[in-house]
Amino acid sequence: MAALAPPVAAIRVAVRRALADLPPGGPVLVACSGGADSLALAAATAFVAPRLGRAAGLVTVDHGLQEGSAQRAAAVAAWAHEIGLAPVESVRVDVAGRPGGPEAAAREARYRALAEVAGRYGAAALLTGHTRDDQAETVLLALARGAGPRGLAGMPARRDLDGVPLLRPLLEVGREQTRKACAVLGLSPWEDPHNADPSYARARVRADVLPALVRALGPGVLDNLARTARLVAADNAVLDELAVAALADVRHPEGGLSVGALAALSPAVRGRVLHAWARELGAPPTALSYRHVTALDTLVTGWRGQGAAYLPGGLRVVRRDGRLTPAVPR
Torsion angle of alpha carbons 179, 183, 184, 185, nearest 10°? Predict the structure, then answer.
Protein backbone atom coordinates (compact mmCIF):
# COMPACT_ATOMS: atom_id res chain seq x y z
CA MET A 1 0.00 0.00 0.00
CA ALA A 2 1.49 3.32 -1.10
CA ALA A 3 2.18 5.88 1.60
CA LEU A 4 -0.16 8.84 1.70
CA ALA A 5 1.48 12.03 0.44
CA PRO A 6 2.35 14.28 3.42
CA PRO A 7 0.41 17.35 2.16
CA VAL A 8 -2.75 15.29 1.68
CA ALA A 9 -2.29 13.68 5.10
CA ALA A 10 -1.73 17.05 6.81
CA ILE A 11 -4.93 18.50 5.37
CA ARG A 12 -6.98 15.43 6.26
CA VAL A 13 -5.69 15.54 9.83
CA ALA A 14 -6.58 19.23 10.07
CA VAL A 15 -10.11 18.55 8.83
CA ARG A 16 -10.56 15.60 11.19
CA ARG A 17 -9.58 17.78 14.15
CA ALA A 18 -11.99 20.51 13.10
CA LEU A 19 -14.93 18.13 12.71
CA ALA A 20 -14.24 15.97 15.76
CA ASP A 21 -16.08 18.14 18.29
CA LEU A 22 -19.15 18.98 16.22
CA PRO A 23 -22.46 17.74 17.61
CA PRO A 24 -24.42 15.25 15.51
CA GLY A 25 -26.84 16.71 13.04
CA GLY A 26 -26.71 18.34 9.65
CA PRO A 27 -24.00 18.25 7.01
CA VAL A 28 -20.78 20.20 6.96
CA LEU A 29 -20.51 22.49 3.95
CA VAL A 30 -17.24 23.53 2.30
CA ALA A 31 -17.08 26.99 0.76
CA CYS A 32 -15.11 26.37 -2.44
CA SER A 33 -13.99 28.93 -5.02
CA GLY A 34 -12.04 26.46 -7.10
CA GLY A 35 -8.68 27.72 -5.86
CA ALA A 36 -6.04 25.37 -4.49
CA ASP A 37 -6.84 26.01 -0.82
CA SER A 38 -10.57 25.35 -1.01
CA LEU A 39 -10.21 22.48 -3.52
CA ALA A 40 -7.79 20.69 -1.23
CA LEU A 41 -10.11 21.34 1.72
CA ALA A 42 -13.14 20.02 -0.16
CA ALA A 43 -11.30 16.87 -1.26
CA ALA A 44 -10.12 16.21 2.29
CA THR A 45 -13.60 16.81 3.71
CA ALA A 46 -15.14 14.42 1.17
CA PHE A 47 -12.74 11.76 2.49
CA VAL A 48 -12.87 12.51 6.22
CA ALA A 49 -16.49 13.43 6.92
CA PRO A 50 -18.11 10.10 5.90
CA ARG A 51 -15.60 8.26 8.08
CA LEU A 52 -16.86 10.33 11.00
CA GLY A 53 -20.46 9.52 10.13
CA ARG A 54 -21.03 13.02 8.80
CA ALA A 55 -22.54 14.17 5.49
CA ALA A 56 -20.47 16.73 3.61
CA GLY A 57 -21.50 19.16 0.89
CA LEU A 58 -20.15 22.15 -1.00
CA VAL A 59 -21.18 25.71 -1.79
CA THR A 60 -19.53 27.76 -4.50
CA VAL A 61 -20.29 31.46 -4.90
CA ASP A 62 -20.24 33.22 -8.26
CA HIS A 63 -19.62 36.92 -7.72
CA GLY A 64 -20.14 37.67 -11.41
CA LEU A 65 -17.07 39.91 -11.46
CA GLN A 66 -15.04 38.09 -14.10
CA GLU A 67 -15.68 36.64 -17.50
CA GLY A 68 -16.43 32.93 -17.29
CA SER A 69 -17.30 33.00 -13.59
CA ALA A 70 -20.61 31.19 -14.11
CA GLN A 71 -18.92 28.38 -16.05
CA ARG A 72 -16.23 28.07 -13.38
CA ALA A 73 -18.82 27.83 -10.61
CA ALA A 74 -20.67 25.17 -12.59
CA ALA A 75 -17.44 23.20 -13.04
CA VAL A 76 -16.71 23.32 -9.30
CA ALA A 77 -20.24 22.10 -8.56
CA ALA A 78 -19.94 19.27 -11.10
CA TRP A 79 -16.63 18.17 -9.59
CA ALA A 80 -18.18 18.18 -6.11
CA HIS A 81 -20.94 15.86 -7.31
CA GLU A 82 -18.32 13.55 -8.85
CA ILE A 83 -16.42 13.08 -5.58
CA GLY A 84 -19.60 12.38 -3.64
CA LEU A 85 -20.29 15.67 -1.90
CA ALA A 86 -23.95 16.43 -1.24
CA PRO A 87 -25.69 18.79 -1.03
CA VAL A 88 -23.97 20.95 -3.64
CA GLU A 89 -25.03 24.47 -4.53
CA SER A 90 -23.76 27.18 -6.84
CA VAL A 91 -25.00 30.61 -5.77
CA ARG A 92 -24.83 33.80 -7.83
CA VAL A 93 -24.55 37.05 -5.86
CA ASP A 94 -24.82 40.69 -6.86
CA VAL A 95 -21.91 42.74 -5.54
CA ALA A 96 -22.87 46.06 -7.09
CA GLY A 97 -24.20 48.75 -4.77
CA ARG A 98 -22.89 47.19 -1.56
CA PRO A 99 -20.95 49.38 0.89
CA GLY A 100 -17.16 49.43 1.04
CA GLY A 101 -14.58 48.72 -1.63
CA PRO A 102 -14.82 45.82 -4.10
CA GLU A 103 -13.08 43.36 -1.74
CA ALA A 104 -15.33 44.23 1.19
CA ALA A 105 -18.47 44.17 -0.96
CA ALA A 106 -17.62 40.77 -2.43
CA ARG A 107 -16.80 39.36 1.02
CA GLU A 108 -20.05 40.65 2.52
CA ALA A 109 -22.08 39.23 -0.36
CA ARG A 110 -20.26 35.90 -0.19
CA TYR A 111 -20.74 35.38 3.53
CA ARG A 112 -24.37 36.40 3.35
CA ALA A 113 -24.94 33.78 0.64
CA LEU A 114 -22.99 31.12 2.54
CA ALA A 115 -24.96 31.79 5.71
CA GLU A 116 -28.26 31.50 3.83
CA VAL A 117 -27.34 28.14 2.29
CA ALA A 118 -25.94 26.80 5.57
CA GLY A 119 -29.08 27.82 7.41
CA ARG A 120 -31.33 26.27 4.79
CA TYR A 121 -29.63 22.88 5.09
CA GLY A 122 -29.29 23.03 8.86
CA ALA A 123 -25.53 22.71 8.45
CA ALA A 124 -23.49 21.67 11.46
CA ALA A 125 -20.66 23.87 10.22
CA LEU A 126 -19.34 25.82 7.27
CA LEU A 127 -15.67 25.28 6.34
CA THR A 128 -13.43 27.78 4.55
CA GLY A 129 -9.96 27.23 3.11
CA HIS A 130 -8.01 30.05 4.76
CA THR A 131 -4.42 28.92 5.34
CA ARG A 132 -1.48 29.84 7.55
CA ASP A 133 -0.29 32.18 4.76
CA ASP A 134 -3.66 33.98 4.73
CA GLN A 135 -3.34 34.38 8.48
CA ALA A 136 0.17 35.83 8.18
CA GLU A 137 -1.08 38.31 5.58
CA THR A 138 -3.95 39.30 7.85
CA VAL A 139 -1.61 39.99 10.76
CA LEU A 140 0.68 42.13 8.59
CA LEU A 141 -2.24 44.12 7.21
CA ALA A 142 -3.51 44.67 10.75
CA LEU A 143 -0.08 45.94 11.80
CA ALA A 144 -0.02 48.32 8.85
CA ARG A 145 -3.42 49.73 9.85
CA GLY A 146 -2.31 50.23 13.43
CA ALA A 147 -4.92 47.75 14.59
CA GLY A 148 -5.12 46.74 18.22
CA PRO A 149 -5.23 43.22 19.64
CA ARG A 150 -8.45 42.35 17.82
CA GLY A 151 -6.76 42.95 14.47
CA LEU A 152 -3.54 41.21 15.45
CA ALA A 153 -5.52 38.13 16.50
CA GLY A 154 -6.17 37.57 12.80
CA MET A 155 -8.89 35.21 11.68
CA PRO A 156 -10.36 32.94 14.36
CA ALA A 157 -10.30 29.21 13.77
CA ARG A 158 -13.99 29.23 14.68
CA ARG A 159 -16.64 31.92 14.75
CA ASP A 160 -20.38 32.20 14.51
CA LEU A 161 -21.97 33.04 11.16
CA ASP A 162 -25.67 33.69 11.68
CA GLY A 163 -25.95 30.78 14.10
CA VAL A 164 -23.74 28.38 12.10
CA PRO A 165 -20.15 27.63 13.20
CA LEU A 166 -17.69 28.86 10.57
CA LEU A 167 -14.52 26.76 10.80
CA ARG A 168 -11.09 27.41 9.29
CA PRO A 169 -9.34 24.03 9.57
CA LEU A 170 -6.27 25.02 7.52
CA LEU A 171 -4.92 27.94 9.56
CA GLU A 172 -1.89 25.83 10.47
CA VAL A 173 -1.45 24.46 6.94
CA GLY A 174 0.73 26.32 4.43
CA ARG A 175 -0.51 27.44 1.04
CA GLU A 176 2.27 25.44 -0.60
CA GLN A 177 0.88 22.29 1.02
CA THR A 178 -2.57 22.85 -0.50
CA ARG A 179 -1.01 23.29 -3.94
CA LYS A 180 1.03 20.12 -3.54
CA ALA A 181 -2.04 18.24 -2.34
CA CYS A 182 -3.95 19.33 -5.44
CA ALA A 183 -1.09 18.15 -7.64
CA VAL A 184 -1.01 14.76 -5.92
CA LEU A 185 -4.78 14.39 -6.27
CA GLY A 186 -4.78 15.46 -9.92
CA LEU A 187 -6.81 18.61 -9.29
CA SER A 188 -6.43 21.75 -11.42
CA PRO A 189 -6.97 24.82 -9.22
CA TRP A 190 -8.23 28.11 -10.57
CA GLU A 191 -5.93 31.09 -10.03
CA ASP A 192 -7.98 34.16 -9.10
CA PRO A 193 -6.48 37.14 -10.98
CA HIS A 194 -7.46 39.39 -8.06
CA ASN A 195 -4.82 37.60 -5.97
CA ALA A 196 -2.13 39.06 -8.23
CA ASP A 197 -3.69 42.49 -8.79
CA PRO A 198 -1.40 45.10 -7.19
CA SER A 199 -4.33 47.47 -6.68
CA TYR A 200 -5.31 45.27 -3.71
CA ALA A 201 -3.26 45.62 -0.52
CA ARG A 202 -3.46 41.91 0.26
CA ALA A 203 -2.15 41.07 -3.20
CA ARG A 204 0.85 43.37 -2.65
CA VAL A 205 1.55 41.76 0.72
CA ARG A 206 1.31 38.31 -0.88
CA ALA A 207 3.53 39.12 -3.85
CA ASP A 208 6.11 41.43 -2.28
CA VAL A 209 6.04 41.75 1.51
CA LEU A 210 5.82 38.12 2.63
CA PRO A 211 8.50 36.89 0.19
CA ALA A 212 10.79 39.71 1.36
CA LEU A 213 10.23 38.73 4.99
CA VAL A 214 10.95 35.08 4.22
CA ARG A 215 14.18 36.03 2.43
CA ALA A 216 15.27 38.29 5.30
CA LEU A 217 14.11 36.22 8.29
CA GLY A 218 13.66 32.70 6.99
CA PRO A 219 10.57 30.57 6.27
CA GLY A 220 9.70 30.31 9.96
CA VAL A 221 8.37 33.86 9.86
CA LEU A 222 5.06 32.61 8.44
CA ASP A 223 4.54 30.19 11.32
CA ASN A 224 5.60 32.88 13.79
CA LEU A 225 3.08 35.39 12.45
CA ALA A 226 0.31 32.79 12.61
CA ARG A 227 1.41 31.80 16.12
CA THR A 228 1.27 35.44 17.16
CA ALA A 229 -2.35 35.57 16.02
CA ARG A 230 -3.20 32.49 18.12
CA LEU A 231 -1.50 33.88 21.23
CA VAL A 232 -3.15 37.29 20.92
CA ALA A 233 -6.52 35.64 20.30
CA ALA A 234 -6.17 33.67 23.55
CA ASP A 235 -5.42 36.87 25.47
CA ASN A 236 -8.33 38.62 23.78
CA ALA A 237 -10.70 35.89 24.90
CA VAL A 238 -9.79 36.48 28.55
CA LEU A 239 -10.06 40.26 28.23
CA ASP A 240 -13.43 39.92 26.50
CA GLU A 241 -14.73 37.78 29.38
CA LEU A 242 -13.57 40.40 31.86
CA ALA A 243 -15.24 43.12 29.79
CA VAL A 244 -18.59 41.31 29.77
CA ALA A 245 -18.58 41.19 33.56
CA ALA A 246 -17.32 44.77 33.83
CA LEU A 247 -20.04 46.12 31.56
CA ALA A 248 -22.67 44.71 33.90
CA ASP A 249 -20.90 46.30 36.88
CA VAL A 250 -20.58 49.81 35.43
CA ARG A 251 -24.20 50.23 34.39
CA HIS A 252 -25.76 53.18 36.19
CA PRO A 253 -29.12 52.65 37.95
CA GLU A 254 -30.55 55.60 36.07
CA GLY A 255 -29.28 54.46 32.67
CA GLY A 256 -26.01 54.77 30.84
CA LEU A 257 -22.64 53.96 32.39
CA SER A 258 -21.13 55.20 35.66
CA VAL A 259 -18.08 57.38 34.99
CA GLY A 260 -16.54 56.55 38.36
CA ALA A 261 -16.85 52.81 37.81
CA LEU A 262 -15.45 53.14 34.28
CA ALA A 263 -12.47 55.16 35.50
CA ALA A 264 -11.59 52.39 37.96
CA LEU A 265 -11.22 49.82 35.18
CA SER A 266 -7.90 49.01 33.50
CA PRO A 267 -7.60 50.75 30.11
CA ALA A 268 -7.68 47.44 28.20
CA VAL A 269 -10.94 46.36 29.82
CA ARG A 270 -12.49 49.85 29.73
CA GLY A 271 -11.89 50.11 26.00
CA ARG A 272 -13.68 46.82 25.40
CA VAL A 273 -16.56 47.87 27.66
CA LEU A 274 -17.01 51.13 25.76
CA HIS A 275 -16.79 49.32 22.43
CA ALA A 276 -19.45 46.81 23.47
CA TRP A 277 -21.70 49.55 24.87
CA ALA A 278 -21.40 51.59 21.66
CA ARG A 279 -22.58 48.55 19.73
CA GLU A 280 -25.51 48.20 22.14
CA LEU A 281 -26.46 51.78 21.35
CA GLY A 282 -26.65 50.89 17.67
CA ALA A 283 -23.25 51.90 16.30
CA PRO A 284 -22.55 49.70 13.24
CA PRO A 285 -19.72 47.30 14.19
CA THR A 286 -17.95 47.65 10.84
CA ALA A 287 -17.83 51.45 11.19
CA LEU A 288 -16.95 51.59 14.88
CA SER A 289 -13.23 52.34 15.13
CA TYR A 290 -10.43 53.13 17.56
CA ARG A 291 -11.05 56.87 17.32
CA HIS A 292 -14.69 56.46 18.34
CA VAL A 293 -13.79 54.40 21.42
CA THR A 294 -11.05 56.89 22.24
CA ALA A 295 -13.57 59.73 22.09
CA LEU A 296 -15.77 57.88 24.59
CA ASP A 297 -12.77 57.14 26.80
CA THR A 298 -11.84 60.84 26.82
CA LEU A 299 -15.24 61.62 28.33
CA VAL A 300 -14.17 59.38 31.21
CA THR A 301 -10.46 60.07 31.65
CA GLY A 302 -9.97 63.47 30.02
CA TRP A 303 -13.12 65.31 31.03
CA ARG A 304 -12.82 69.10 30.59
CA GLY A 305 -16.49 69.93 30.16
CA GLN A 306 -16.37 69.11 26.45
CA GLY A 307 -19.38 68.25 24.34
CA ALA A 308 -20.60 64.99 22.94
CA ALA A 309 -18.59 62.15 21.47
CA TYR A 310 -19.87 61.20 18.04
CA LEU A 311 -20.37 57.59 17.02
CA PRO A 312 -21.23 55.99 13.67
CA GLY A 313 -24.91 55.85 12.87
CA GLY A 314 -25.56 59.44 13.92
CA LEU A 315 -25.22 58.63 17.63
CA ARG A 316 -23.95 61.06 20.25
CA VAL A 317 -22.84 60.28 23.80
CA VAL A 318 -22.57 62.92 26.53
CA ARG A 319 -21.26 62.99 30.08
CA ARG A 320 -23.86 64.23 32.51
CA ASP A 321 -24.30 63.81 36.29
CA GLY A 322 -21.48 61.31 36.60
CA ARG A 323 -22.55 59.02 33.81
CA LEU A 324 -22.24 58.51 30.08
CA THR A 325 -25.59 58.57 28.31
CA PRO A 326 -26.74 58.72 24.71
CA ALA A 327 -27.82 62.23 23.77
CA VAL A 328 -31.42 62.77 22.75
CA PRO A 329 -31.56 63.22 18.96
CA ARG A 330 -31.99 66.79 17.88
Answer: 100
Which of 106, 77, 107, 75 minimizes the C-alpha distance to 89?
77
Q: Which residues of the chain have pLDDT under 70?
A: 1-2, 63-67, 95-103, 329-330
Which one-letter DSSP state was computed for residue 251?
Answer: B
Q: Are 73 and 60 in contact (CB under 8 A)?
A: yes
Q: Are 87 and 134 spatial neighbours (Cβ–Cβ below 8 Å)?
A: no
Residue 161 in contact with residue 114, Cβ under 8 Å? yes
**Cβ-contact 292, 316 below 8 angstroms:** no
Q: Are 256 and 321 in contact (CB under 8 A)?
A: no
CA–CA dist 38, 249 (Å, integer): 45
Please give the backbone phi and psi of residue 253, each rounded to the nearest 5 degrees, phi first. Answer: -55, -25
pLDDT digits (tens, 9 = 90+) for 188-211: 998 877 777 888 888 999 999 999
Residues in the chain, overall count: 330
The C-alpha atoms of residue 291 and residue 296 are separated, in whole angstroms, by 9
